[in-house]
Structure formats: structure tokens, C-alpha cells
Design a protein that fits this description.
The chain is α/β, with parallel strands linked by helices. The protein has three domains: about 5-60, no CATH class; about 85-260 and about 360-365, P-loop containing nucleotide triphosphate hydrolases (Rossmann fold), CATH 3.40.50.300; about 260-350, Helicase, Ruva Protein, domain 3. Helices cover about 55% and strands about 10% of the residues. It is built from 18 helices and six strands. The chain has helices at about 15-30, 35-50, 50-60, 60-80, 95-110, 135-145, 155-160, 165-180, 190, 205-225, 245-250, 260-270, 285-290, 295-315, 320-325, 330, 335-345, 355-365, and strands spanning about 80, 125, 150, 180-185, 230-235, 255. Strands 1-3-4-5-2-6 form a six-stranded mixed sheet, sandwiched between helices. Helix 1 crosses helix 3 (about 50-60) and helix 5 runs parallel beside helix 6 (about 135-145). The longest helix is centred in the middle third of the chain and has 21 residues, at about 205-225. The chain starts with 14 loop residues before the first helix and ends with a helix. Belongs to the AAA ATPase family. GO terms for molecular function: ATP binding; ATP hydrolysis activity. One of its GO terms (cellular component) is microtubule cytoskeleton. InterPro entries: AAA+_ATPase, AAA_lid_3, ATPase_AAA_core, ATPase_AAA_CS, MT-severing_AAA_ATPase, P-loop_NTPase.
């Protein structure tokens, strides 16, 4: 912990830099164990380090520099303080909501029940075609109980610290433990947890997978003492057949998030259009039938396109100066049935029958009933 151990002092650094190094080293060595206060202080200290001190640490204490930089990156790029997505913002998907409640919310409400054989699920995988609401479901469950939400993308883990991804994963789980209850959401988890042992697999990727598996195993033992301080991994995948079996076993509950049914499509239409005027000639049940086979994101695109129709008609053939004079009431005219019909013709669905069949076959073999 002594600054003298790093050799002669560089004249470009002042005494405060050496003092910070000594203090950080002492704090780092003294924060062993599970002391949440120590973790919290260390977290605050990482924010207090200015750029000059950080440059100093990069030269004289590279390990400490790396730790502070990783911690900052996790806070900046991964932790979402308040996702602000309510269950009511997500149309239908009743089965998926029920499973997420069982895995995340109920253990916080009834911690004494979720013990021993009833210990909470530590890994949940949501699979389904793109645009079905998997990410919104993950954010919604975190919002419900004000849970710390870690939004992890594979690019963040692999590009920020190339070759050091396993250290970043270790720190990610340490942060999740400090801020528990936590949800670690890994989008496109198939690209991170693909089958191991492939000839093209990079050594960095192999080490990263091993580190992640190790920490996923550790979640089970960590939750035994206090279910209310649990950490749950939520994964989302559009290609679940690419996920390695070792990861599938640890993602204990596997939920199929399908395309919305007729009721779900109508509910989504109402949600999406709640802040705009809709003409009385629009029958949302009929529109819902026309959107059979569309994903949730496809339906939102149709609604947005239909909402622009009145503006397009109002400005057609006009100059910019003439457009400025158009009353807002004309631009915001209610969406009509014809607007929807035209939007549906323009916006094609993005999920094929072959895609759906592949997901259903995978779900038949690996999925969990809810």
C-alpha cells in the first residue's frame, strides 16, 4: 500500500496522486468479505477519482486503474437505475409475466417460502422471434420491485476490454451482489453462450464462457442465505438452438415468447394508439385480424406509419413555407380505416411461417410449461 514501492515519484504528479494511490490500495485490501458498506464506499471512491489521478494510476497501479475503469464502465453502460417499463405497458404475454413473477418478484415478497427445495430460479431464458417483447418483459420485472437492472450486451463484454472479458464478468457479478436484488439481463445471449469447442472459437471467448458458467453456478449458493437479496440472470434469444447445453441447464426456466394472438394484437393496438385520435370508422378488432402473423414491433411500425398519414396528405405538393401555415389540428387529424389499410400494405411482417415452426419445435423439446 506504500507509494514508495512504485519507485521514484514523477514530477508531473503531485502529492494528492500518491495519497490517492495509498488510500485506494488500503481500501482495496481492507474491503474483503461481504461488507456492503465497504463495497458502497469503494463504489463512491471510483467516482471521486479525477482524470489526472486515473492517468497516474494507469502508469503506477495498472490493476487498480483497470478495476476502477471497469467499475465505471459497468455503472455507465450496463446499470439502468430505473427501466421505467410497467407490466401494463406490455400487451398480453400472460404466461411469460407469470413465470417472471415466480422467478424474480415473489421471492422478494415471500423470502421465507423460497428456501431449500423451493429456492428461487436463478436463470430464466426467454426465446422467440424478434420483436415479441422479450427486452420489455425483462425491464418490466425490474421496474416492478425497483430491482437493480444490469443490461448486458455481448458487444459491451467483448469490445471494451478485449482479452479481459472474464475480469469484467467477475466485476459484473460483484456489482450485482452489492446492489442485490439484481437482474442481469443478457440480450442475444446465444452469441455469448454458443456451443463450446468449435474449431473457430477464440481463446478469449472460451475463457469468457468458462467464467460466466462459474458465476452462474455461484448464484445458487449465494441465494440460500437470503432469497430477498437474490441475483437472477435473464437471457433473451432469437436463436436458442445455438446455445450450449451447459448454459441451457443453468437457465432453468425457458419461456417461449410467441407472436401476439388476436387478443394480444388488439390490446397492443390500444396501448400504442392511446395518445392519438382514432376515427370512429376504425374497428381495432378487424385491424387485429389483418395483422395476423405480425410481431409486436411490426404492429408498432404499422401504427406509427398510419399516424403519419394525415400529415403526409396535408403537406403533399406544398412548399416548406406553406407547410408552416398548416394548422396543427389538420396535421393531427384522427387516424382512419384507410390510413391503416395503406400502412398495412406498406409495412410487411418480418417473421415467416418457417421461423415460427422452428421456434415451436425447439420449445417442444426444451421449453418450460408455465
Amino acid at each position: 500500500g506504500s507509494a514508495a514501492g512504485f519507485g521514484c515519484r514523477n514530477s508531473s504528479y503531485n502529492s494528492s496522486h500518491w495519497s490517492c494511490l495509498t488510500q485506494c490500495a488500503d481500501d482495496d485490501s481492507g474491503n474483503s468479505g461481504d461488507s456492503k458498506n465497504g463495497d458502497k464506499k469503494e463504489d463512491e471512491d471510483s467516482d471521486d477519482v479525477d482524470d489526472g489521478t486515473l492517468a497516474f494510476l494507469r502508469i503506477f497501479a495498472p490493476e487498480l486503474y483497470e478495476k476502477i475503469t471497469m467499475k465505471r464502465m459497468i455503472k455507465r453502460d450496463i446499470i439502468v437505475d430505473r427501466p421505467d417499463v410497467q407490466w401494463t405497458d406490455i400487451a398480453n404475454q400472460v404466461k411469460a409475466k407469470r413465470m417472471l413473477q415466480e422467478a424474480v418478484i415473489l421471492p422478494l415478497e415471500k423470502p421465507n417460502y423460497f428456501k431449500n427445495i423451493r429456492k428461487p430460479w436463478k436463470g430464466v431464458l426467454m426465446v422467440g422471434p424478434p420483436g415479441t417483447g422479450k427486452t420489455m418483459l425483462a425491464k418490466g420485472v425490474a421496474t416492478e420491485k425497483n430491482i437493480t437492472f444490469f443490461n448486458v450486451s455481448v458487444s459491451t463484454l467483448t469490445s471494451k476490454f478485449f482479452g479481459e472479458s472474464e475480469k469484467l464478468i467477475k466485476m459484473l457479478f460483484e456489482e450485482a451482489k452489492t446492489r442485490a436484488p439484481s437482474v442481469i439481463f443478457i440480450d442475444e445471449i446465444d452469441s455469448l453462450c454458443s456451443s463450446r469447442g468449435e474449431p473457430t472459437e477464440h481463446e478469449v471467448t472460451r475463457r469468457m464462457k468458462s467464467e460466466l458458467l462459474s458465476h452462474m453456478d455461484g448464484l445458487v449458493s449465494a441465494s440460500k442465505s437470503d432469497p430477498a437479496k437474490s441475483i437472477v440472470i435473464l437471457g433473451a434469444s432469437n436463436f436458442p438452438w445455438n446455445i450450449d447445453n451447459a448454459f441451457l441447464r443453468r437457465l432453468e426456466k425457458r419461456i417461449y415468447v410467441p407472436l401476439p394472438d388476436s387478443k394480444g394484437r388488439e390490446e397492443l393496438l390500444k396501448l400504442t394508439l392511446r395518445n392519438v385520435d382514432v376515427h370512429s370508422d376504425v374497428d381495432l378488432e378487424l385491424i387485429s385480424d389483418q395483422l395476423d402473423g405480425y410481431s409486436a414491433s411490426d404492429i408498432v411500425v404499422v401504427c406509427r406509419d398510419a399516424a403519419f398519414m394525415s400529415m403526409r396528405k396535408a403537406i403533399k405538393g406544398k412548399t416548406v413555407e406553406q407547410i408552416k401555415a398548416i394548422p396543427m389540428a389538420v396535421m393531427k387529424a384522427p387516424i382512419t380505416k384507410d390510413d391503416f389499410n395503406l400502412a398495412i400494405k406498406k409495412c410487411q411482417k418480418t417473421v415467416t411461417e418457417a421461423d415460427i415452426k422452428k421456434f415451436e419445435e425447439w420449445n417442444e423439446e426444451y421449453g418450460s410449461s408455465v
